[in-house]
């Protein structure tokens, strides 16, 4: 990586995002770090999103637009990775906002610590908060404190309950990972030969284990650098079908086994696996028109979960159950306080 001004590629999958897309792209163009390759991947949008992308490309030479048939977010992210030429890679969702210091501060942290990935903090916002967020996101701010994490895969699997993160203090909070690719800055070589599995809802869960396993060191920047817009119609908040739940079960199981083989206890995937099977069972119980295929699939997932959990020791399963119980309670509060944002 060049020591002075490395090129940073920012990949933005775009699909039917005309309502918020300009806010997102404006926040990227407004980055204090200027040496950017901005890749807007029009994933077969049927609204004005593609035209908006082309407008930005005609106004700023740093913007490149790729128009492709709809293939889902994994396909769009892969299309961006295939053409990215930057020394570092970042992602941004098409309705979110990056703080103007996002790339500058993450890049400084990456270079100072010689880490494989730099990550920042984020806030969830509602649509009504967009005007104030846009203003605060453009304001200058000092770089936050840095914390090094030398075991990223273990941190990802073990630190995921908000309650325990609060009780553990700043060091524990810094070790918090999730599957999201935004508010991260990656060294380009991490993605060599690695691509998202297309045609699935939970492409980020499948990627988490293999990606974090490649990293020797991660640096956390204690600073809000990203704003995640909460929309009731987004896939994360609204897509609740047998296919969605099943995909989450399989993704958690794949990541569970990948992690366990590397000598790390997959506590996060214990929660993801059991929660997704529970959602499947509840969805089946509440669907009087469920097909026999759906019932067979749920039962197969339930048996597969039991076999997978049987690979853990009894003490590990107990810890997993405790952590999962805490996380489920937190999710109830999260649904009320965060998903209800307007």
UniProtKB/TrEMBL annotation:
<keyword id="KW-0328">Glycosyltransferase</keyword>
<dbReference type="InterPro" id="IPR001173">
    <property type="entry name" value="Glyco_trans_2-like"/>
</dbReference>
<protein>
    <submittedName>
        <fullName>Glycosyltransferase</fullName>
        <ecNumber>2.4.-.-</ecNumber>
    </submittedName>
</protein>
<dbReference type="InterPro" id="IPR029044">
    <property type="entry name" value="Nucleotide-diphossugar_trans"/>
</dbReference>
<feature type="domain" description="Glycosyltransferase 2-like">
    <location>
        <begin position="9"/>
        <end position="135"/>
    </location>
</feature>
<keyword id="KW-0808">Transferase</keyword>
<dbReference type="Pfam" id="PF00535">
    <property type="entry name" value="Glycos_transf_2"/>
</dbReference>
<dbReference type="GO" id="GO:0016757">
    <property type="term" value="F:glycosyltransferase activity"/>
</dbReference>
